[in-house]
Design brief:
The structure is a homotetramer.
Chain A (H helix, E strand, L loop, with lengths): L3 H17 L6 E6 L4 E6 L7 H15 L3 H10 L1 H10 L10 E5 L5 E8 L3 H14 L3 E3 L1
Antiparallel strand pairs in A: 1-2, 1-4, 3-4, 3-5
Helix pairs in contact in A: 1-5, 3-4
């Protein structure tokens, strides 16, 4: 289980890392094990639709139990499968890096983080930094 | 325009006020003038569906330009109207206190805050406290 | 069939009449006989969600072949029926005055106008003025 | 912020330019910074579903902060990403030219224009003309 304090730690770390690395304004969400939002923040200057992208990255990860990189590999191999998955989850998936699974020490998936705003790879990198700063294991 | 720092100030204030007053665990969201999320937090122990309630309270307020109390009065007078409005906005309205308009010094609506978790009146009270702590005017 | 020039005449007339009568900022839409938008305008100062309300008022009218007043009477008598209708049309109905049928000289429904922003009765009044200014018959 | 007068100026200019250039009947929408309609017009002879295309072009642009040309480049490189984005925004995106960002003199995105009816490139061209006629900067 992720506390609100841990979720905020992940988001603050990801946004601070992005600012330090000179990335574009980021948006970040942390979802619980059921795919429901615990915390979200959108940096000043980010486009208004960034909540939806961040949520979709994280939601698809936790609902499928697959990080964004595994989802992208599947989309490259079988685009129609990930398109169907998008419909199955009412549009709330985005099969690119930036949706990252959060695992506890037993290895159980306890939630997911979604980051968007820069390149997908940079989004994933700061999400991993955030998850690790809160003491959890990331699978991007 | 509401900055992320101001949005977080509103949410922290509302959740701290709720804890101080002995309210149940609260969830709070701040939306921009177009109804898009800027920041959200769900206190430990709150039910998983609280994001959706908080969002609906705030979304209905900003899209209609009416606080939760005015929406509730309309629902009491004409339930079928507010039911239709719920359909019009894809279910993202909740006509009770806790959806509060955020106005700047010129009086313009620059966003809305949605709080849920305790009684509707208590939800609205801490939302107002949060908005005022960030230096804005609240219409609940 | 309604031309774009006629649709714009209806909208300009409705908004000008509202301004002259001291009504709140209005939003107005004209739909064709299939319920599809021909023209829309939102006056400065109107809430962002007014497009959706205007569209719903007009869409319900043209799809049901009933003006807003007849829909409201039905909602007063049988709220669950109009609630079901709202679901049937994906939320795009609003059973109050302000959705007005547009009939040509043969009496055929050729579209509908939706106005929102002030009281429902005032919304309907300026919609009727707009439709008549374009040379058609209004059924509110 | 875009006034109704400015939005109508953009639309009138785009449709007039299209007629002058001998393009097919055009439809044009202007959305505010939150993706909500300010004004729309569909030229006589345009197909009934043109509102939805115009809205999708403009909505995707403003929500993502990317013009239609940048979206098309992304779709060419990663079709499954833009397909997922379409699901994320409930179908309201269209990754081709004709969705154009509107920037004010500070460079901030204050809305988007969507034009449809002729080739995507011609749609974008008249949208740019409309936005510039209203004194703003276009990013197509």
């Amino acid at each position: 289980m992720i506390t609100l304090e841990q979720a905020q730690k992940m988001i603050e770390t990801a946004l601070a890392q992005g600012a330090e690395d000179g990335l574009k304004p980021l948006s970040a969400i942390v979802l619980d094990a059921g795919g429901h939002p615990l915390a979200f923040a959108r940096a000043d200057g980010a486009a208004p639709g960034r909540f939806d992208i961040a949520q979709a990255k994280a939601y698809g990860a936790v609902m499928l139990g697959m990080g964004g990189k595994a989802q992208m590999a599947r989309a490259e191999a079988q685009a129609y499968f990930m398109a169907a998955v998008n419909g199955i989850y009412d549009g709330k998936t985005c099969p690119v890096p930036g949706g990252v699974l959060i695992r506890d020490e037993s290895g159980a998936v306890i939630g997911a983080m979604g980051v968007t705003g820069d390149t997908s790879d940079n989004d994933a990198k700061v999400a991993v930094a955030g998850i690790e700063a809160a003491g959890f294991t990331a699978e991007d």
